[in-house]
TrEMBL record:
Pfam families: GH43_C2, Glyco_hydro_43
GO biological process: carbohydrate metabolic process
Protein name, as recorded: Beta-xylosidase
Gene3D superfamilies in the cross-refs: 2.60.120.200, Glycosyl hydrolase domain, family 43
Keyword terms: Glycosidase, Hydrolase
Residue ranges annotated for the Beta-xylosidase C-terminal Concanavalin A-like domain, each copy included: 333-537
Stated family: Belongs to the glycosyl hydrolase 43 family.
C-alpha cells in the first residue's frame, strides 16, 4: 500500500500554515495569536511525520503582547528561505473589536530555523496576513491585505468591504524598508474577505493564492495568475482550489488559507487550515488545524487537487514510501528537567519569570498568582493544546491559600469568556476547598458561574486534579492522595463551548482549546502554587 498523509498533519490549534522547503527539509509556520512564544514551526522530511522544532519570537524585543485582546497577537506568519537565510514575516494585531485592527507587520531572519532569530524590522501597518516573495531576479516583494475601517465591519461579524484587496510593494533589504509604489493587485472573487496572500512563480507565471470567505464554514483557497507580478490577475477556472463551503458532509470543514510547495522531484502539494466540527452544534473544539493536499498541474497551466474537485481529503498520497510514527497515547511531564516541555505555552508576556519558575522548587512547576484568569496582561497560566476530541488531563497542586482571592488548579481554557477551571482556594466557613469557576461563553461580560457552589473541603496536602473531556462533555475530578479513588465534582459541563464557535460564535475568536495549570491572586501578594506533574492522555472517542 502506498504511503499516505493523514490529515490534519498538525492537529489542534495550528492555523494559517505557511510551508517552506529547503533541500529535503520541510517547515510549516502557523499562527499563535496571544500565546507565547510566538509562531510555531514544525519540521518534516517526508510530509507525513512532523515535529515542533521552534517558536522563534521569544523575547521582549521581538514580541510583547501584554494588553492584546483575545485572538489578537500573531496572525498568519509567512516563512521563506533565500540568500542563505530563513525569513519570517508576521503581524502583531493590537485591536480586534470595532472598526480598527491596528495590525503591525515585521520581518525577522535566522541562518537556521533552530537558531536565535533576529530582532524585528518594522514594515507597515496597512493590514494583516503579510508575506514576502523572493523573485528570481533578486527583487523582494511584500504583500498584505489592506484593512478598510470605513465600513460597518465590527469584530465578530466581518463585512466584505473591510477586506480591501491585496497590496504589493517592493522590499529593499539594503535600506530595510518598502520602496516604490503601493499597488492593489487583487481584489478577490465574489466570495469576498480576501486575505492570506502567497505568491510563487512557475513557467513564467506568477501564481497568487489567497484565503477568502472568512475563516469559518465559507472559507476557501482562491487562486489567480498573471504574467507580471503586479497583475492583472486572472482567476482559476474553478475560482477556488480548495474549499468545503458547499459540502457540509466533508470531514475537513473551514478549508482555506494555505500555501503551495513542491517536492524535490516536482510533486505538488498545498497546505490549508481546516476544522473538524463535532455534532450536533458543529463546533470545532480543536480549533483550526493544518492539513496537506496532493495537487496536480494540468495542461491548462492551472493547479488542481489530484483527487478532483475542490473538497479536501483526509488521506492523500505521500511523495514517497514512508512510515507514520505512532503517536503516544499519553504524554507526561514531571518537571524534573528544569525546562518547560515543548508542548507548553503561556499567555502574552515576554517576562515568563514573573509568572512561573522551574527552579524555585525542585521537580515542580511553580506558578506565581498574578492577575485573574482571563487577564490580558499578566496571567499565570501554562498550558498545552487539546489535540484530540476526547482526552484526560491530570496534575497535582500544592497550594496554601488564605483568602478566596487566591486560586490555583487545572483548566480547560480558550479565552476570558470560554473556560472551565477546577481550583483549590479558601472559603470562610469550609476552609480550604476545591471548586469550579466556569465561564461558558458569556460574551462580552465574562461572568462566572460556580457549578460546584462553594466547593468541597479538602485536607491540607497536595491535591490531585483531573479533567476528562468526551467530545462535547467535560467532567472534573479530584482526590487527596494517589491511593484514593477519583471523586467527581460538579455536573458535566459543556466542553464544546471551549471552541472557535462557542460563545461569541463564528468569526468571534480564532485560537483553540488548551488544558493547563493556572494560579491567580487578586489580593496582589503573588501566592505561589507548585505543580509536580502534568499528564495528558488521548481517550477513545
Amino acid at each position: 500500500m502506498a504511503a499516505m498523509i493523514r490529515n490534519p498533519v498538525l492537529p489542534g490549534f495550528n492555523p494559517d500554515p505557511s510551508i517552506c522547503r529547503v533541500g529535503d527539509d520541510y517547515y510549516i509556520a502557523t499562527s499563535t495569536f496571544e500565546w507565547y512564544p510566538g509562531v510555531q514551526i514544525h519540521h518534516s522530511r517526508d510530509l507525513v511525520n512532523w515535529r515542533l522544532v521552534r517558536r522563534p519570537l521569544e523575547r521582549a524585543s521581538q514580541l510583547d503582547m501584554r494588553g492584546n485582546p483575545d485572538s489578537c497577537g500573531i496572525w498568519a506568519p509567512c516563512l521563506s528561505y533565500c540568500d542563505g537565510l530563513f525569513w519570517l514575516v508576521y503581524t502583531d494585531v493590537k485591536r480586534f473589536d470595532g472598526n480598527f485592527k491596528d495590525a503591525h507587520n515585521y520581518i525577522v531572519t535566522a541562518e537556521a530555523v533552530e537558531a536565535t532569530w533576529s530582532d524585528p524590522v518594522y514594515v507597515n501597518s496597512s493590514g494583516f496576513d503579510p508575506s514576502l516573495f523572493h523573485d528570481d531576479d533578486g527583487r523582494k516583494w511584500f504583500l498584505n491585505m489592506r484593512w478598510n475601517h470605513r465600513t460597518e465591519s465590527f469584530g465578530g461579524a466581518p463585512k466584505h468591504p473591510a477586506f480591501d484587496g491585496i497590496l504589493l510593494q517592493e522590499w529593499d533589504e539594503r535600506s530595510r524598508k518598502l520602496v516604490g509604489p503601493v499597488k492593489t493587485i487583487f481584489a478577490g472573487s465574489s466570495l469576498g474577505l480576501v486575505e492570506g496572500p502567497h505568491l510563487f512563480k512557475r513557467d513564467g507565471w506568477y501564481y497568487l493564492t489567497t484565503a477568502e470567505g472568512g475563516t469559518g464554514y465559507d472559507h476557501a483557497v482562491t487562486m489567480a495568475r498573471s504574467r507580471t507580478i503586479d497583475g492583472p490577475y486572472e482567476m482559476h477556472p474553478n475560482t477556488h482550489l480548495i474549499t468545503s463551503k458547499d459540502h457540509p458532509e466533508a470531514a475537513l470543514q473551514r478549508a482555506g488559507h494555505g500555501q503551495y510547495v513542491e517536492t524535490p522531484d516536482g510533486q505538488a502539494y498545498h497546505t490549508h487550515l481546516c476544522g473538524r466540527p463535532l455534532p450536533p452544534h458543529r463546533r470545532c473544539t480543536l480549533g483550526r488545524e493544518t492539513a496537506l493536499q496532493k495537487c496536480a498541474w494540468r495542461e491548462d497551466g492551472w493547479l488542481y487537487l489530484e483527487s478532483g474537485g475542490v473538497v479536501p481529503e483526509v488521506s492523500v498520497p505521500a511523495p514517497a514510501e514512508t512510515t507514520a510514527a505512532p503517536q503516544p497515547a499519553v504524554i507526561e511531564t514531571d518537571f524534573d528537567e528544569g525546562v518547560l516541555a515543548p508542548e507548553f505555552q503561556w499567555l502574552r508576556t515576554p517576562v515568563p519569570e514573573r509568572i512561573f519558575s522551574l527552579e524555585r522548587r525542585e521537580g515542580h512547576l511553580r506558578l506565581f498568582g498574578r492577575e485573574s484568569i482571563g487577564s490580558w496582561f499578566e496571567q499565570a497560566l501554562v498550558a498545552r493544546r487539546q489535540e484530540h476530541h476526547s482526552f484526560r488531563a491530570e496534575t497535582v497542586v500544592d497550594f496554601a491559600p488564605h483568602t478566596y482571592q487566591q486560586v490555583a488548579g487545572l483548566t480547560h481554557y480558550y479565552n476570558r469568556h470560554k473556560f472551565h477551571a477546577l481550583g483549590v482556594t479558601w472559603h470562610e466557613t469550609l476552609g480550604r476547598v476545591v471548586t469550579i469557576l466556569s465561564c461558558p461563553g458569556d460574551f462580552p461580560h465574562g461572568r462566572l458561574q460556580y457549578p460546584a457552589g462553594s466547593g468541597v473541603a479538602v485536607p491540607e496536602s497536595p491535591i490531585h486534579l483531573a479533567i476528562e473531556v468526551q467530545n462535547n462533555d467535560l467532567q472534573f475530578f479530584w482526590r487527596a492522595t494517589a491511593e484514593e479513588e477519583w471523586a467527581s465534582i460538579g455536573p458535566a459541563l459543556d466542553a464544546g463551548v471551549v471552541s472557535d464557535e462557542g460563545g461569541r460564535g463564528e468569526h468571534g475568536s480564532f485560537t483553540g482549546a488548551f488544558a493547563g495549570m493556572f494560579a491567580f491572586d487578586t489580593s496582589g501578594s503573588g501566592m505561589p502554587a507548585d505543580f509536580d506533574r502534568f499528564r495528558y492522555e488521548m481517550l477513545a472517542a
